[in-house]
Protein: Nephrocystin 3-like N-terminal domain-containing protein
Organism: Colletotrichum spaethianum
Amino acid sequence: MVMDLQIISWVFGCQDVGWRCIMLTTLSAVVTQWLRDHYTGKKDAVASVFVREDAVTAGTAFVEDVLTSIFHQLCVGHVEAHEDEAYVAKYRLYLDARKHGHRDIFRIKLIRDALESRLGMLDHAFLVIDDFDRCSPAVDLFLENELAILANQSRLKVLITSRVSCLKDVPTAQYCDSCDDEEDAAKFLFVYWRCDSCRRKKWKPAHILCQGCRDKGKTCVNW
């Protein structure tokens, strides 16, 4: 499978890409492997999470498990860890909190602190999450908030894939809302950017950008 230029664009300059694809799990696996093959330095790390069951209840436990899995994966290539390194010390605080039964919100804060410390040591960090729509809206929002905090505080780039629910209207076409050229505006998009503010505030339809318009610095006109 040939790596699409849009994926390469995301790797080098993007944080979130909207995909409409019937083989998203395969896509996620291919992207993950491609990243691991191309980012092999001591300060490079790639993590992936494939959601296989619906996450409707026990949202804090799910988010904690996801963050812990990400932390472990980001540490795989770091074989020279020393006890006095900040991220190791912070992870031990998290383990102690689990051992003594501290509240889940407190534990999540501790594992997030350990993650931020580890991410601060990396030049390149990538996270691929597949089948994100298995999360309930509450869990979705909770996890997105945690990922946003990590991404804002580090070089972490996050790629999230999700399917269109069979209970929702499947879009028959997707076009860029910002293309000035009529020919470009009429092109059907398989890869696109969707405004996160529109999505969060349930603005319909959400503003869509093609990669070309985003590279030109165009933004959503709804806000």
The chain has two domains: 16-167, 171-223. Confidence is low (pLDDT under 50) at residues 14-22.
